[in-house]
Amino acid sequence: QVVTRALGELALTMSGLATQVRAHEMGDLLRQLRRLQRMAENLGMVSLGVVAGDLRVCMERSDPTAFAAVWARLLRIAERSLASDKALLEQLDQTPF
Question: Are 21 and 71 in contact (CB under 8 A)?
């Protein structure tokens, strides 16, 4: 239940980030990316955590081209990570203990 809750929180955080980026509201984005990075690392989602850190670097360097590329990468990794964890969680839910 703890892992399921953490994955749900991570998905909500990712959704919130996507909303902020679409609206070009970058004021709080660094803090939210750091939160996403910590959550991903705590769940063992190393790639997701690393890319969230890379995106923070792009923001700190004010590089919009790199930001766009790394943002697209973050979205792909988040989608892949959350989709595979969802399938795994569904399998675990069906396993009798």
Answer: yes
Reported pTM = 0.80
* Cα–Cα distance list, 94 to 5, 53, 56, 91 (Å): 18, 35, 38, 5
Question: Residue 77 corresponds to which tokens in the numbers above?
Answer: 């990794």
**pLDDT tens track for 13-66:** 999 999 999 999 998 999 999 999 999 999 999 999 999 999 999 999 999 999
- Please classify residue 24 by burial: count the beta carbons closer than 10 Å to its beta carbon, then call 0-12 exposed, 13-18 middle and 19+ buried: exposed
Asked if 73 contacts 58 with a C-beta cutoff of 8 angstroms, the reply is no
- φ, ψ at 85 (rounded to 5°): -70, -35
CB burial of residue 74 (10 Å; 0-12, 13-18, 19+): buried
With cut-offs at 50, 70 and 90, classify the pLDDT of residue 87. Answer: low
